[in-house]
Amino acid sequence: MPLAGMRTTFAAALVAATVVVRAQSPSPAPVWLDAYREPAARLIGAALGDTAAWTRLAALTDTFGHRLAGSKALEDAIAWALAEMKRDGLENVRGEKVMVPHWVRGREHAELVAPVRHPLVMLGLGNSVGTPPDGIEAEAVVMRSFDELDARGAALKGKIVVYNVPWTGYGPTVQYRSSGASRAAAHGAVGMLLRSVGQPGLRTPHTGALAYAADQPKIPAVAIANEDADRLQRLQDRGLTLVVRLSMDARMLPDAESANVIGEIAGRERPEEVVVLGCHFDSWDVGTGATDDGGGCVASWEAVRLMKQLGLRPRRTVRAVLFTNEENGLRGGLAYRDQHLAELPNHVLMIETDGGVFRPLGFGFSGNDQARATVKAIASLLAGIGAARVGASGGGADIGPSVQAGKVPSMSLDVDGSLYFTIHHTEADTVDKIEPTDIARCVAALAVMGYVVADLPARLGQ
Ligand SMILES: [Zn+2]
């Protein structure tokens, strides 16, 4: 389209947008919001004024690397976070003990051995069993759905099932990773290969947890790169018989000791009432867990640090919680619920950041209508950084158990998610995918929302 035409179209769109905004303009901002314009501006200015968050995330991921539950790297990173939080002047800094599963990948290899030899780019799925020491070799059958699996039924006995399920979003596709192995085992399959659950990448397999059904044999299960799944499909479509060889040392060791990391700014009037900024500090054992979820942890922590640095002590406590073991057990989230059960009625709001720290757009929120109106007003303070949106629902895996048990209003930071499922659970989850200005904006959004909700004269939703 010629430039002049574009300008005309843009101008017309702008006029239309202005009309829409006026027509849908909500009731004027509540009077109480005025008191928060100045502290919000200070928090946003401080967050955007330096690259502290990105620098800290780079230090975390470069120094410790990935942080799978049970690993020394996770425990070393936890010790570092506790020491750094104390250095930052955060209050009541502590680790709360959690026992976590200890799965180790070990060496692993998969290859097509017939009709041609072709190494498969793969990652074993978390919690998978390994193969016998000599590996397994079996005919592989490619299919696109559970319906196709069930239709083949007994013909799959002794075979390796290959799910080549196209990506249609995380929800519909991830069930093949979670339960595909046991469903294949129910038909007598001896192994499972999965087209990676993620957006098309550059031959990057995506790991992630599987859950074995108690009543089926446990068979080894791996994710292969999308390109490899497509190649197997094409070979089978030509009428060729596929044979795959798989060898994995993966095994589950006894539970290991880990901890949820907590740091706060204590409330000046009602310290027993708490706003939680949560995230998970563990990651998969590939990449460096920068987006999932080191970034969410650094942003949540940094939001509390900025309040402290600026002398903004809210009425209620703001608590950063770096949960352990979200990825293959959720033990951190469950332990927090159990260890804080009596205090959950005093949890005013729980916010989880686990969708990456890309450009923030706003928040998802679950809570009553009165609370929703309040958080919408607070989010309007973030219009300048483009993060004023409040979506229909919000929450997260780590805060989920507490939110449910305590009926706590819950929120998630919403960000531009276009890259998230390209790097999710892959070797490509590294800090270079994150822009310093984006994570700084995430810090600003969390700091403003956390601070104002913690400081409101009346408790959120009441
Ligand atoms: Zn995550």
Task: Describe this structure as you would to a colleague.
There is one protein chain. It contains 13 helices and 16 strands. Helix 3 crosses helix 8. Strand 2 and strand 3 (118-119) form a beta hairpin. The termini are far apart. With 462 residues, it is an alpha/beta fold. It is elongated. The strands form two sheets. The protein has an eight-stranded mixed sheet, sandwiched between helices. An eight-stranded mixed sheet has the order 3-2-9-5-6-7-8-4. The structure holds zinc ion (ZN). Zinc ion binds at residues 280, 292-293, 326, 354.
What is the count of DSSP helices, taking H or I runs of 4+ residues?
13
Radius of gyration: 24 Å
Number of strands: 16
> pLDDT below 50 for ≥5 consecutive residues: which ranges?
1-24
Helicity, in percent? 25-40%
Summarize the structure.
Helix 2 packs antiparallel against helix 13, helix 3 packs across helix 8 and helix 3 crosses helix 13.
Question: Which short descriptors sum up this protein?
Answer:
462 residues; 13 helices; 8-stranded mixed beta sheet; single chain; binds zinc ion; disordered N terminus; 24% strand; alpha/beta
